[in-house]
Input
Amino acid sequence: MRLVYLVLPYLPFVVLALAALVAANYIYVYW
Amino acid sequence: MNAISETRTKPAERSVASEFAIEQFPLIAIVLSFGVAAAYWQHGFLPGGEVAFPLAGVKVPVWHLIWMGFWTGYTMAVVGEAAGIFALPYQMSILQFTGPGVTPTTQLITLLNPFGALFGFRRNRQWNLDFALWVCLGGAVGGLIGPVVRITLLSDVKPFTFAVGLALASAGTHLCYAAYRGFRDRRSSEGLEAKFRMEARNRRAAGLSPAGLPENIGIQTLERQGLYVVIGFWGEQWRINRAFLFLTGVGVGIISAALGVGGGFLLVPIFAAVYGLPMYVLVAATIPYVIVLSAIGLFTYGVILPLVTGVTIAPEWAWGFFAAAGGILGSWCAAKTQKYVPEPSLKLMLGVITGIAGTLYVIDYFYPLPFRM
Output
């Protein structure tokens, strides 16, 4: 739970980073 | 001064889990099942990673569409905008959905996405009808005038998007600077940001989740005086002219409907940069606003335009519903987690998004981009 609390204030940036990762993976697999 | 409206209409306090089970889960499940049903109705099978979506001509796993909805919905709802400005370039550039169907599909996504945030913020009491009503009415009027302006006055929208791009780029720079000032003054003991830090610190010390907003505060109408309405939030006050709200709604509605873009990313910088409203307050007006504007946009482009031109462009329904299901979840998560994110971070995010969008509009004027925004 502590770890979740640490991440919460930075959540928007974490979500954006994950989105970039998934996009890169999609480009790698499907293009 | 007495609190007039919002204390009376205070929604019942519920835990986050039961809020999800009662309000969000049924909505998401319905939209997801609409996606499956629409796939069989429109194509007779369920497209995905193995079989391409026929209209889009794209192979993409369904989970990726749900994820796309989630992150675009989350990112935009956390700063109070719709998801179109991320979803459209992402679909066109990354997923390669470049057919004409991408526009109505995105409109479907941006209409449904903010509902998670709408219900979520309402439960947080980040909600005020006095504040939202006149902007939304203005948006409805502007959204209907916009397409007429587009057909009659604007034969070439490029110079207009260039001007909007410049305005957005400067608003973005302004917001980034405000974010920088927020980070720089993080030890100051004045204003909402200091209270936010103190609250988060106290809660963390007590072993609670580090929310920076207390649970019992809401956006209140403190006073109505003629044209003016006084909005209060956590000890701060803003005296807002309702005519200004209405005219801003009309102006943003006309511009966004004429250019065919979402209205939220124009409205939010105006409220944040011009009025100095905190992100936690402006969502009360901008989330309902983007729903109104999206609904009118969908109606105009789905019903009125086909009547006038005789050409109907079908959306990829299943695609739209799958992304919207993720979007509802994402925007609800944004509403529930916004109180953990310090205002400078929100401003930085909004400033960067606004600045990039504005810069791309300006670049597009000189060198056409390979995607639309």
